[in-house]
Write a structure and sequence with these properties.
By secondary structure, this protein is an all-beta fold. The protein has strands spanning 6-15, 18-30, 32-36, 58-61, 70-82, 91-92, 95-99, 103-106, 110-119, 127-130, 137-143, 146-152, 169-172, 179-190, 204-205, 207-210, 214-215.
């Protein structure tokens, strides 16, 4: 699970006679650790194991959180391949969905929010959407020349893995793509109260999925 690790997923889709495979590369770990790469056995809000079709890592801060504000993320690049592992699959209309972006706000004086972002493509124009009404807030940053766009959760912590629309986001790519780069992370802010602190974080479960797409 270290930076540079590559995981292979065979037969993630079939389009016509072509089999689509995928690799997921761990690009970076910033103030966060990847506790589990893909938690297939995790359960949803109804205690059903439904995550086999999702990319569902568990991510935690790399240290205990206390009186100082802190944020971090794990960065992944997901690449698509056609009929093997050497021929990139150039896809049109990629829809990437990130589920269960929630948060924790306790009486210990802290605010822990999960974050989900994608790297803006060179031409821009990724359609970023959330449900109406939503529990999410817009969240973005710039790293070097890369622009990242997405959402952060609020103060409602939902049980297990939640597919409720209020904590889900969708990213639709306007141009042909053979890969997407994403960040799953956290934003922690200390809110002074009673002189005590707590992170409420632990390894947090994240979940994402690609919806329909087509070949060029």
């Amino acid at each position: 699970r270290s930076v540079g690790s590559v995981w292979k997923y065979s037969n993630v889709s079939v389009i016509g006679t072509d089999v689509i495979n995928a690799t997921i590369t761990v690009d970076a770990c910033y103030q966060a650790v990847l506790a589990e790469f893909d938690a297939d056995a995790a359960t949803d809000e109804n205690d059903n194991q439904t995550l086999q079709a999702f990319f569902a890592p568990k991510i935690a801060p790399d240290q205990s959180l206390g009186s100082s504000n802190r944020n971090g993320y794990i960065q992944f690049t997901i690449r698509f391949w056609k009929n093997g592992w050497t021929n990139p699959a150039i896809l049109n209309g990629i829809n990437y969905s990130h589920y269960d972006i929630d948060g924790v706000h306790g009486n210990q004086g802290y605010w822990f929010r999960e974050t989900g972002m994608v790297k803006q493509v060179s031409s821009g124009g990724i359609v970023v959407s959330a449900n109406s009404p939503t529990e999410l807030t817009s969240y973005s940053c710039v790293t070097g020349s890369d622009h990242w766009i997405g959402f952060a959760g609020t103060t409602c912590n939902r049980n297990n893995f939640s597919r409720y629309a209020q904590v889900g986001a969708n990213f639709k790519y306007p141009i042909l793509q053979s890969s997407v780069t994403i960040r799953m992370g956290y934003d922690y802010q200390n809110l002074p109260a009673a002189g005590t602190y707590g992170d409420g974080a632990g390894p947090r479960l994240y979940a994402s999925k690609f919806e329909c797409f087509n070949f060029v």
